[in-house]
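testing teh design pipeline on a random one, pls ignore if ur not involved
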C-alpha cells in the first residue's frame, strides 16, 4: 500500500507505530492472519491472509482504521494496491525474507532485525 502522493508519513516513529498498532489490533480481532509486515517511509508491505473479508476489504479496513486512529482529514493512501498470490510455504518464506531484507537493500539498516517497523524486528 502506497501513501497518497508518495508522502513520507512513516518517517516519524509515532505514525509508523500507530500503523503497526492498527495492524496488530485488527489481527487480534480476526480480520486477517498477519504473516509479515514492513512499514517504509512512504509505503507498507503486508503478507496477510484475509479471514472474514475479501482481500480488498481487509486492506480497506487497515487503511480506514489507521486514518481513523490518527484523525486524518486528508487522503492518506494511494488508490489500489498490488497483490501477489502465495502458493505454498516455500513461497511464503521467500516473500517474507525478501520483504524483511528491503530496509537492508535500501541502506536503512544493517540487518533486518534492526529495522524497527518490521515483523523481522518484532517477531510478530
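output:
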Amino acid at each position: 500500500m502506497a501513501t497518497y502522493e508518495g508522502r513520507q508519513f512513516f518517517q516519524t516513529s509515532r505514525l509508523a507505530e500507530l500503523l503497526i498498532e492498527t495492524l496488530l489490533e485488527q489481527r487480534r480481532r480476526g480480520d486477517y492472519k498477519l504473516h509479515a509486515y514492513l512499514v517504509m517511509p512512504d509505503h507498507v508491505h503486508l503478507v496477510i491472509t484475509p479471514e472474514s473479508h475479501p482481500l480488498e476489504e481487509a486492506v480497506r479496513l487497515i487503511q480506514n482504521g489507521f486514518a481513523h486512529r490518527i484523525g486524518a482529514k486528508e487522503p492518506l493512501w494511494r488508490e489500489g494496491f498490488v497483490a501477489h498470490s502465495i502458493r505454498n510455504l516455500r513461497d511464503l518464506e521467500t516473500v517474507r525474507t525478501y520483504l524483511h531484507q528491503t530496509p537492508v537493500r535500501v541502506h536503512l539498516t544493517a540487518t533486518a532485525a534492526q529495522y524497527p517497523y518490521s515483523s523481522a524486528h518484532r517477531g510478530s
